[in-house]
Structures are given as C-alpha cells and as structure tokens.
Amino acid sequence: MAVPFFDITRQNRSFQPQLDQVIKASVDSGRYILGQTVADFEQAAAGFCGTKHAIGVASGTDALHLALRACGIGPGDEVITTAFTFVATIEAIIYCGAKPVFADIEPKTFNIEPRSVTSIINKKTKAILPVSLYGQTPDMQNLLSICDKRGLRLVEDACQAIGAEQNGTKSGAFGDAGCFSFFPTKNLGCFGDGGLITTNNGNLADECRVLRGHGSREMYKYEMIGYNSRLDALQAAILHVKLPKLDDFSHNRRINAEFYRKNLVNIAEISLPTEAKGCKHVYNQFTLRVKERDKLVAHLRSKNIGSMVYYPLALHLHQAYSYLGFKKGDLPETEKAQTEVMSLPIFPELTESELAEVVSAIKEFYKK
Ligand SMILES: Cc1ncc(COP(=O)(O)O)c(C=O)c1O
C-alpha cells in the first residue's frame, strides 16, 4: 500500500460544504484583500493563541520580516537563531539588514540551546529568534530570562508550531511577537500563502499593520517605508473555517505519534522524537534520528512510502550564506542532526493501516 507523506485533500473533503460556501461568499463579496473577513479571522486567531493582537500577512516569511522590523532590528544588528531551520528564518533577518548568528541545537529536541545562545551574545546582539522546530517550542523560560537580563527582543518563529504549548502558554504568546505560516503543509494551512504575527504589544501590532500596507495608515499618506504584505480575504475565510478544528488536528497528530512510538520503540537504530518537560508537541513533523538514514529513505521510497529530510544541510553550510563566516565544525550538534534526521508521514487524516504499513516497512529494513 502506498502511503503519502502528506495529503491535504483528505482534510479539505471533511470541510467541503463549509469551504464551498465561504469561497463563494468571498468571491461574491467583491472585497478580496483585508477587510472584515481578515479582521474576524485575526480576532479568532489571537483568541486561539492567547494574545491581544494578531495581524494577518502574506506569508510566514513576511510575518518574521515585519515582526523583526517592528522590533527595531536593522543594519548593524545581530540576531541569534538556529541554522537548523527553513531558510526563511534567516532571510527575514537579512531583509532587515541585520546579521543572523547561529547558536547550536539541543540534540534531543533539535531546538536552540540556551547556553549556546549566551555564549555568542555581544554588543551588537539585539534579538533572539528561536524556531519551534517540527512543532515543539524551545526552552522558552531560559530564553526569555536571557532576553530579560540582556535587554534583547524575542521573536518566535512558530511557523511549524501553531497550537503547541509550554507550561500552559501557547506558541506565539511568549516573546515580543510570534510568527506563523499558513503554507498548505502547516498544521493550519490555507490554499496558497498566508501568515500571521501575534503579539501582546499594542504599539508593535500597530506598526506591523502599517508595515503590511505600504507603510500607510491613511490612503496615500506614508509614515514609513512599508511592504505589500496583506492576507487575502479568501485565505482568511478558509482559515477561519479550519481554525475551530485545529485542536482536533493536533490531537490526531499526537495519536499518530503515539502509534509510531509504541511500534518503533524497540528498534535500537532509531531515536524517537522527545517531548520536552512541560511541552505539548503538535508534530508538524514526526522526526526520527536513524542509522543509515539515506538507505532507509530509499527503502521507504521503493515501497511508495513518503518521507522527508528536514533539513539535509544546515544553513551555515550553504553557498549563499558563506559570507556570514561560519564553517563546517562550528555547530557540531546541528551538523550531526542533518545527517541523521528523517520525518515520517504524520498528517491527521492518516489511517491506522497506513501507519502500520510505515512501521512494517521500517521493521523490514532493520530486519526486526
Ligand atoms: C520554520 C519556518 N520558518 C518560516 C517559514 C516560512 O513560511 P512561509 O512559507 O509561509 O513564508 C516556514 C515555512 O515554510 C518554516 O517552516
């Protein structure tokens, strides 16, 4: 049996009548950018994340860029982040004219390691940009206390982690701002690109709103150099239909994760993902560390079972970012992870027989 790595059409089918209705209403409305539909979704999303404000933007990349700019990050500044992430995390820093500086990761959670962060703080450091990789928040308590002591801003890259929690606080509600992506493969996905900034800071929210609309509050009056980064009404309407079901999606992802845990626990060649103390992982990805990763990926592919490697090469080792001055060997845990990680299908609508198929193919590979 073939098992897809991801299939959004199954989820769409479960919402078909509501989606058809809001898409038609959106087309008929004649109002396609921002407007009440986006404002309504923003309010619901802020309520979900437990923040005072939410600002819809064109993508997760833009959410990061605008949030950093609204935090005052600019030329000459350094922002500490991880090299084990999607490229957009550091693009956003660079778009602000600032420099990404890489801390190493914790081997168990793949997230930024607070002591490694402390060791690279200097006078130029203005912010920390932790990524909640695969759907789990990093050690926010320690990161926030570092920011407090050193007077740094904290912007969360929560693009993979909507709905994740740490000690009762939701992703997006920890620092100065939280940034989300609604790219279709995310836990809450739309039918194209979309993103969101969450914050409890009214001034920051206001600046993000102005920045997303060409730096203008009043038509043809420009307060600052802005961007065209607005969320479409159609995407907001689709997201608003799906948002009330997000906790159910996360629940199903967690059940799928439990299935894998139970059935793969005895394979010595596999390290299962760790749920850190106090954390609720929402498994945008279920990521293993394995021996002979590339061979296992090829074995699953030969059986038509989807898997992915996020990420095969950490960002500091790419040609485009060599100018940052990092080299091989600088981030040992990051560089080890890139050779061992692989993600299994985990999307909420997978059937138990599909999960069993994945498990049996892995067992066959390790001859268990
Ligand atoms: C960690 C991370 N940061 C940023 C982004 C950028 O989001 P988008 O693709 O919506 O621009 C993504 C997703 O693609 C991501 O996974």
What would you say this structure looks like, in words?
This protein has helices spanning 8-14, 16-29, 35-49, 60-70, 88-95, 114-118, 140-150, 202-212, 233-242, 246-264, 293-302, 332-340, 352-365, and strands spanning 53-57, 78-82, 99-103, 125-128, 153-157, 165-166, 169-170, 177-181, 195-199, 216-218, 221-222, 270-271, 279-280, 286-290, 341-344. It is an alpha/beta fold. It folds into two domains: 8-244, Aspartate Aminotransferase, domain 2; 245-365, Alpha-Beta Complex (Aspartate Aminotransferase, domain 1), CATH 3.90.1150.10. A seven-stranded mixed β-sheet has the order 1-9-8-5-4-2-3, sandwiched between helices. It has a three-stranded antiparallel β-sheet with strand order 7-6-13, with no helix packed on it. A three-stranded antiparallel β-sheet has the order 12-14-15. α4 (60-70) packs across α8 (202-212) and α10 (246-264) runs parallel beside α13 (352-365). The longest helix has 19 residues, at 246-264. The two termini are 20 Å apart. The model has no long low-confidence stretch (mean pLDDT 97). Pyridoxal-5'-phosphate (PLP) binds next to α4 and α5. Pyridoxal-5'-phosphate is lined by residues 59-61, 85-86, 88-89, 131, 157, 159-160, 181, 183, 193, 195.
Query: Radius of gyration over alpha carbons?
Result: 21 Å
CATH architecture heading of the largest domain? 3-Layer(aba) Sandwich
Q: H/E order of the elements? A: HHHEHEHEHEHEEEEEHEEHHEEEHHEH
Strand content: 15-25%
How is the biggest beta sheet arranged?
A: 7 strands, mixed
CATH class of the largest domain: Alpha Beta
What small-molecule ligands were found?
pyridoxal-5'-phosphate
CATH superfamily grouping of the largest domain: Type I PLP-dependent aspartate aminotransferase-like (Major domain)
Shape: globular
**Residue-averaged pLDDT, rounded?**
97
Strand arrangement, major sheet: 1-9-8-5-4-2-3
The total tally of domains equals 2
The CATH topology label of the largest domain is Aspartate Aminotransferase, domain 2
Low-pLDDT regions? none
Count of helical regions: 13
- According to DSSP, the number of beta strands is 15
